[in-house]
Amino acid sequence: MNGSMTDTKPDTKPHSPVLIGLAVMLVAFNLRPAITSVGPLLTGIVAETGLSATGAAALTTLPVLCLGLGGALGPAAIRRLGVDAGILAGIAAVLVGLLLRGFGGLPALFAGAAVAGLGIGLAGVLLPALVKRDFSRQAGRATGLYTMALCVGAGAGTGLTVPFEHALGQGWAAALALWSLPALVAVFAWAPFAKARPAAAASVARRPAPSLWREPLAWQVAGFMGLQSSLAYIQFGWLPAVLQGRGLDALDAGYLAAVAAIAQAPGALLLPTAAARARDQRGWIVGGLAAMVAAFLTLAFGPEILTVPAAIVLGFASGGCFGLGLTVIVLRARDAAGAGALSAMAQGFGYALASLGPFGFGLAHQATGGWGLPALLFSAIAVAGAICGLGAGRAQQVGQAARGP
User: Fold this and answer.
1) The dihedral of CA 132, 262, 307, 354: what is its sign?
2) Please, which domain of life does this record's source organism belong to (predicted)?
3) CA-CA distance, 358 to 54, in Å (whole number)?
4) CB 184 within 8 A of CB 95
5) In angstroms, how far is CA 122 from the centroid of its own chain?
6) Quick one: CATH architecture of 17-403?
7) What pLDDT digit, counting tens, does each position of 237-287 carry?
């Protein structure tokens, strides 16, 4: 990741863009294990605690809902703390939430999910503003790299949590708490940058953020971000259960879900990088969502021999769509302040919308006892996301849409 830090004071020694980029990727790695590590253990948690199907749906929904609430704090964090310190506050909250889960029991599990979700939402909203400020000339590549790191973290949370539980032999709480270690590393890795660039953060905060609530383009970006995220969180929270429903054991289902999660990484890097070079991103968005639906249906109902290829396609397309969501935030904004405001709206409202996906998916499964109705819901969400994406992918910027291309 290359870039310049034009907002720093002359007497402030800038850090290497490479070091900043590596620190960003380390932060990004920790923005999903708090969410993806629960799904592989959900069956065991339900069996041990007696959690109902509705409670399990609420557990998979809560962190996503809190992502939206944390994202809504983005503009205030930019004004009061600046982008860099705001990211530090977010990753510190993730650390606290992960530690809470180690106490065991449902209250600590739900509380940890909420606190970690708030931190993920806050840090996630501020990263596009940082990219627009420091890496604006390489927005697609920079977004792809940190989204790739985020997807690697998602895959690690899905694939390694069950082996951690087996290796530790201390139950699900200890396995979940182990994810606090990389979060602690991220806190220490990002702290020097939060301290080193107060002037850059303040200069972004001083720029007035545009009003977006009457902008159709902003709503389209938010809708696409939320709906594609809803599909991803259904995948994170319920794919292991779907796979177990077709006869796989918990370990095999976890590994297959991990294949899907890890396959997000190349998609998150390649699709946004390529799409950012195109005149608009509409074709990439529709193609990515169509691939997600086809792969998910294959995993749920298709021949067993196709499960591994389908998992790879699902992950690649899911990571690509998430990267596209973040990329259109950067591309549709005029400057760092605009990117921060659009990111807060798109991710704040978007994640609140996204939280309905896994909750509705769980309720649909509870109502029918099967996966047909949930799969239909998954497909309908993808269609709605494509409709929003056709608007969000246009070659316009916020403030320009009302006047036409």
Assistant:
1) negative
2) Bacteria
3) 11
4) yes
5) 11
6) Up-down Bundle (1.20)
7) 788 889 988 888 777 887 788 788 778 888 988 888 888 888 889 999 999
